[in-house]
Amino acid sequence: MQNKFRRFAVQLAPISLMVIGALQIHAQNAGTVRGSVTDPSAAVIPGATVQLTGGSISRNVKTDGQGKFSITIAPGTYSVRADAPGFTTFMSQTLTVTGGQVTPLDIALQVAAEAVQVQVQDEAVGAVTTDPSQNVGALVLKADDLEFLPDDPDDLQADLQALAGPSAGPNGAQFFVDGFSGGQLPPKSSIREIRINSNPFSSEFDRPGFGRIEILTKPGTDKFHGGGFLNIGDQKFDSRNPFLTQTPPHYSSRMFSFNVGGPLSKKASFMTNFDNRDNSEQSLVNALTLDSSFNTISRNIAFAIPQTNYGISQRLDYQINNSNTIVGRYNFNHSTGVGGVSGFALPSQVSNSSGNSHNVQITETAILGTKAIDETRVQINRRANDQRGSGVLAPVVNVQSSFVDGGSPLLANFTHTSGLEVHNTVTTTLGRHTVKAGGRMRYDDLASNSTSNYNGTYTFTTPNSLSVAAPCLAGIANPTSLDVYRQTQQLLKQGIPMSTILAQGCGPNQFTLNSGIPLASVHQFDTGIFVQDDYRFRPNLTISAGLRYEWQTNISDKRAVAPRIAIAWAPGSKAGKPGKTVIRTGYGIFYDRFSENTYLNTQRYNGSGQLNYNINSTQNPATAALALAAYPAIPSTALLNLQNQAIYKVDPTFLAPGMMQFAISADRSLPGRSSVSVNFVDTRGIHDQRTRNINAFLPGTYDSVLRTGGKRPFAGGDLYSYESTGVYRQRQIVVNASTRFNKHFTMQGYYAYGRVKSNVNGFPSNQYDTSVDYGRAGYDVRHRLNFGGSVGLPLKMSLAPLVTISSAPPFNITTGTDFNGDGIINDRPSFATTASNLKNVKVTQWGTFNAAPLSGETIIPINYGTGFHHITANLRLSRTFGWGERAGSNPNAGG
Question: Are residues 241 and 361 in the same domain?
C-alpha cells in the first residue's frame, strides 16, 4: 500500500505540471483584479482602458475582445478608473486588493449623453465564477460581516473553527495570519478580512483548503482614525451549569481594546492595537469521594480559574518606491491562568501558568515589470510558558471515574520555543496563465523542562473480573474502582499491611513515576516548494494544476511529493454573459508534519534522559506488588528498578502522514444576490501517525487470570513506537448558502453530513491486531449546522446571530481493566451472551455488555457509545454612532 501510494503520487505529478514545466521561476503572492467592462445593455466593450491607482502605484490595461481584463498588482486600496470612447468615465475610490487572492470587478459604463451615476461592485455578490479562489463554498468576511463574531479571541477562534466546518482529517482547522502559519490570533478590531475554505486544492498550502482559515490584518491609512470597545460581564449574565448543586463563586469578565492608525508620512502609515482581558471563569468538578466514615459523597465544585491576557500589536506600511513596498508587524502577548481542576480532578491538582510571546513579521512586495510580482515574508517568534503546581510533595491518587486527589501533578515546568519562517513567492501572468511558484522554510527550536509526575501517581481501577476472587471485596456486587479504594483505606486504618491488602485483591494496581533529567530540547527544520498554474483554457473553463514537494528533519522519509489538480466549468456561460452554474472538481495529495513535540518525547524518554517508570500489577505481579506495597508513599529506587522503564522511539520506516482528497461541487447563483453550493468530499488518510507498544506480551503467552507468563519480542520493558501505519476514511456532503439581499441583510451558513472511520483512536487495544480498532473516529459527528449574519434594524441598530448545532459525537466504552497485560487500560467489553457470568454483565443504554469477555464473544466496536448533541447560540445587538465626515461623501467618487 505504501509503495502504491508513492507511485501514484509520482504518476500524477506530470499531469499537475502540464502547463508549467517550461517556466523558470522561483518564488509568489500578489493580488489580481479580474472582471469585464460592459455597456448599459450588458454588451461587452472591447478596448476599454481600466486603471488602478494607489499612492505612487498605477497600472492600466485594455479589455480584450470579450471585454475582459486582468491586472496583477500589490495588495492595498486603489482607486479605479475606466474609459471608453462614447462613454462616461467611471471612477471609484474603494477597491481593496488582497495578496494572493482574485478580486472580481465588473464595470458598467454609461453612454456619454446620459447624466447618470455609475456604480462599482467590488465583489460579484451572489455570482459564480470559474476562478479557483472564488468557490461558493468559501466564506469571505470583512467590514460589517465581522460584527457578528465575538470580541474575545478565544471565542473568536472557536467560532471561526465552527464556520470552517468539518475539516478533512483529525487535525482540525489551520490558521494563517497575513500568510504566516502558527501565529497568534489577532484581536478582532485589527482584522481586515477573513477567508475560509478558499481554493481547496492550491499547491501553495501544505494542508487542504477545506478547514483553512486565512486572516488579513488592517493596514494604516492616509487619514487618522481609531476605535475601541469595553465589555463587562459577571455571574448575573452567565448561565448556570446544570451539574452545579451549590451557589457558584464570583464570576467576572472585563475586556477592553482600542486601536489607532494613520499616516506617518506620504509613504508611510501605521496601525496600533492594544487589548486586555481579565476573566474569572468557572471550572466544574463533578467527582465521587469518601467522607471520614468511608461513605460515598458527591463533590460538585465550581472552581474559580482566573485568566488574564493583554497584547500589543503594531503594524507599519512603507512604500519604498513605485515598485516596492514593505510591511512590518510586531506582536507581544502576556497571559496568566489557573488550570488542572475540572471533571474528576479536585482542587489539589491546581496549577498556575504564565506565558509571553513575541512575534515579528516582515513582508516585502516588489512589482517586476508589468506582469509579475515577487513577495518575500519573514517571521520570527519567541514563546515562553511556565507552569507551577501546588507544591505538595506526595503522590497523586487517581481513582478512575471517581476522583483525582493527593499531591501536585507537577513541580515546575517551562517550555521555550523559537521559530523562523521564510516565504518567497512569485506571481506572473502569461496570457491566459496565472502562475505562482515559491517555497516556505521553517526552523523551530524547542526546549522543555518537565517535572510532570515527579511525585508519582497511584491508580485504582475496576477489579479484574477474570482474576481469582478478591477476599477484600467479598459481598460487594459489581465492585468499582471507588469500592477498591474504600476497602483499601478501611483496611489500612485497621493496621493491615499494604502487602496483605494487595494479596487480598485490593490496593492500587498501577504506579507511574518520572524522574531523572527534566530538561530536553529538539530542533526541527521543514521546507516546501511549489508551483501552481491557473490556466483559463476557455472563458468558461479553468484548469488549475500544481505540484508541491515537502521535506523535514527527524524522520527518514524524503519522498513527500504532492500533486494537485482542479477543474472549474461554467456550462451556461456565453460571451459577455456569465453563467449561473459552475461545476468544480479536484484531487490532491497532502502531507502532515511529524511534530517537534512528538519527537521531544523520544529524546526525553530514551532510557537515559528522563526515566519513565510504569509499575503495573498486570505485568510481573510479584515484583509489582513489592513496589505497590509502598502506597501511599513513593517506592524506593531499588523497588522501581525491579521493573523496566518505558521507552519511546520513532519507527525507522516512518513515512510522512498523508491524505488523498477528491471533491466535486456545484455552485449556483440565485436571485437576490444569493448563491448555494453542494459539495461532496472524499478523503483517505494513509500513513497516519499512531503509537504502539511493540514490546507487549506476545499473543497466547500471557495468563490474564493469574497474571503470569508473558513473553516479549525484545529485551526490556514497554517500548512505544511512533508509527505511520494508521488509516482513515472520511466522506462528507456539505451544502453552503449565502445571501446579501441588500446592505441591511446578509446571511451565510452550511449544513454538513459526514462519516469517518479510523484505526487511530489512541493506543490500540490489541498491539498485534490493530484491525479490531478500525471504526468510528472520535471526531465522527454526523450532522453539523451553522449559520450567522447581520440584520439591519431601525435607529441604526443591527442584529447579528451566530448559531452552531451538531449531533452527538461518539465515545469509547472500556472495562477499566487490562486483560492482555500490555500496560494500557483501554480494553473493551463484549456483547453479553447466555454464557456470560451474570456478575460481570452490565446493562447500559447502549446495550448489555460482559465486562469479562469470554472466548468466542464479540468485542464491542470502538467508540460504540454516543454522547450528547451540542447547540450554541450567540446574539449580538449593536447601535452605531457616527460623527465627522459622512462615509462615501467624496464628491469626486463616481459611485
Answer: yes
| Cβ neighbours of 495 (radius 10 Å) | 6
For the stretch 184-201, what's the b/e string if a residue is b when 16 or more beta carbons lie within 10 angstroms of its beta carbon?
bbbbbbbbbbbbbbbbbb
- Quote the pLDDT of residue 15: 43
**Interacting residues of 149 by C-beta distance below 8 A, sequence separation 6+:** 141, 156, 159, 160, 188, 802
Contact indicator for 739, 747 with CB cutoff of 8 Å? yes
Query: Is residue 535, in this structure, part of any structural domain at all?
Result: no
163: left (phi over 0), alpha (psi -120 to 50) or beta: alpha
* Torsion angle (degrees, nearest 10) of CA 756, 757, 762, 763: -170
Whether 238 and 366 map to the same domain: the answer is yes
Those residues whose C-beta lies under 8 Å from the C-beta of residue 131, and which sit 6 or more positions away, are 34, 102, 104, 534, 542, 568
| Structural domain count of the chain | 3
Last residue of a domain, one of 367, 382, 397: 382
CA 736, 741, 743, 744 dihedral sign is negative
Q: How far is CA 497 from the centre of its chain?
A: 50
Question: In percent, how much of the chain has pLDDT > 90?
Answer: 46
Q: What is the pLDDT of residues 327-367, one digit of tens each?
A: 999 999 999 999 999 999 999 999 999 999 999 999 998 88
Decide if 297 is inside a domain. Answer: yes
How do beta strands 76-83 and 90-97 pair?
A: antiparallel
The parent domain of residue 478 ranges over: 458-509
| Burial category of 155 from C-beta neighbours within 10 Å (exposed 0-12, middle 13-18, buried 19 and up) | middle
> Quick check: 825 and 817 in contact, CB under 8 A?
yes
Q: Is the pLDDT of residue 137 over 80?
A: no
Neighbours of 375 (CB within 10 A): 24
Whether 649 and 178 have beta carbons less than 8 Å apart is answered as no
Is 321 exposed, middle or buried (CB count within 10 Å of its CB: 0-12, 13-18, 19+)?
Answer: exposed
Q: Are residues 267 and 372 in the same domain?
A: yes
When the pLDDT of each residue in the chain is averaged and rounded to a whole number, the result is 84
